[in-house]
Amino acid sequence: MVRLYQEIPMTLFEKIIARQIPADIVYEDNLVLAFRDINPQAPIHVLIVPKRVIPRIGEATGPADQSVLGHLLVQAAEVARRLGLAENGYRLVINNGPDGGETVPHLHCHILGGRLLCWPPG
Ligand code: 5GP
Fold first, then answer.
1. Are 24 and 35 in contact (CB under 8 A)?
2. 6 CB under 6 A from ligand 1?
3. Catalytic sites, residue numbers
């Protein structure tokens, strides 16, 4: 993985991508990695992240981010399908900033399923 800004510390998810921190990986390609959340909020709770860091959706910009995010969403649906969530449904969540509940500054999409999810969220 090529990092443009070597002086910026690696994010937690970059360390998972680099296999410096172990994770239960369920899907990988050249642009994204999907792995099970360490603190699952549903029977199936997977995070899918771009390999090239975008800190959060509010900072996504330009055609390169657009294309990686389009790919990430299509692959999120594919991961959900592979994990058996297509029939009953699932939820994709992207938290942005403090009020949104973002805790890791590396854009990630939660894939949640395997139970009925409440709406509105808490
Ligand atoms: P956020 O709150 O930023 O939307 O989501 C961050 C997610 O990362 C949380 O659901 C949290 O449980 C998960 N997480 C934090 N540290 C780790 C870790 O070391 N490994 C894995 N697999 N998930 C993590």
1. yes
2. no
3. 108
Domain-by-domain residue ranges, the chain? 12-113
pLDDT tens-digit readout, 69-88: 999 999 999 999 999 999 99
**12-35 pLDDT per residue, tens:** 999 999 999 999 999 999 999 999
40 lines ligand 1 (CB under 6 A): no
Q: According to the CATH classification, is domain 12-113 in 3.30.428.10?
A: yes
Is the shortest distance between the CB of 92 and ligand 1 below 6 Å?
Answer: no
Measure the CA–CA gap between 46 and 56, rounded to whole angstroms. Answer: 17
* Rg, C-alpha atoms of the chain: 14
